[in-house]
């Protein structure tokens, strides 16, 4: 596959990932908002039943769990979408044949750090309030560390390129 | 250099965990395959044997087979990634081996993502018998979109990223060679 086609395909997948992330985040958080206003949410309210979702407002500790779920929802939504948007920015630079640039390096490192922070936060929140979540912290940490290392590799390559340019 | 060393450690831990899980699952499978009739209760063993020997045997085996194949492929991908680390440590990014290994890893991750989507779609549509005639279109659309889960999309994204990096390194290698010739 040519580089241009690869970038176009990658962009398409990234947009799909953004839409899917927003959809899954809202799908996960909706029952909690529903319970806040209507006191109870049953699994049958969904097309596809999910046993985890039987939430009752009057049960003790509801507001504590609600706060944790809100932090989970906001962190996932903001960090994941930001990372995916950063990747699209990097892809736009690649399209212009600007590979080893300072902006690409900083975006890659920033994205890697964001995903690692997200995985750490999810791990911590899952310890406090265990339950099923659509993002696994382990896989996020792996992807984050890969992006971070790619950033570091680009950094070294950028330095080499600068040295080469100076030699010329 | 410190980050690359850290990645090396992460990859090594991940690789050995994956190998350990592979071995453990193989042992469990072998034990149940050879001593299943003594370990399991007769009724359970008969039900298991019947479900694998009937008309639906292929459907029963296909999903676990895809999952196992994906797991083994992931282990191989991590092994290939491990092999690239020494080149990074020597700052030898434009090596032909690195480019080839990245290409292989990319293809593996894309395959894992696509096969996961297909297996999810297959298991939901065929095994759970969701395709009732009157609501086929809406249910199929729902199943189709829900099978594009985040895990498989991220897997395809990583795969494409690796393919992209291999292409970039390939292009940069040519540029570097031209530069060296100019000097």
Descriptive report:
The complex is a heterodimer of chains A (168) and B (183). Chain A has helices at residues 3-38, 62-95, 102-128, 137-167, and strands spanning 40-41, 55-56. Chain A is mainly α and 168 residues long. Chain A has one domain. In chain A, helix 2 (62-95) runs antiparallel to helix 3. Chain B is mainly alpha-helical and 183 residues long. Chain B has one domain (2-182). The model of chain B has no long low-confidence stretch (mean pLDDT 78). The relative contact order of chain B is 0.09.
Strand portion of chain B: under 5%
Biggest sheet descriptor of chain B: none
Shape, per Cα inertia axes of chain B: elongated
Unreliable stretches of chain B: none
Helical fraction of chain B equals over 70%
Biggest sheet of chain A: strands side by side, in what order? 1-2
Strand runs of chain B, count: 0
What share of the residues of chain A does DSSP label as strand, in percent? under 5%
Helix count from the secondary structure assignment of chain A = 4
Radius of gyration of chain A: 20 Å
Total beta strand runs of chain A? 2
Tally of separate domains of chain B: 1
Q: Helical region count of chain B?
A: 6
Alpha-beta classification of chain B: mainly alpha
Distance from first to last alpha carbon of chain B: 28 Å
Mean pLDDT score of chain A, rounded? 82
Q: Helix content range of the residues of chain A, please?
A: over 70%
Structural class determined from secondary elements of chain A? mainly alpha
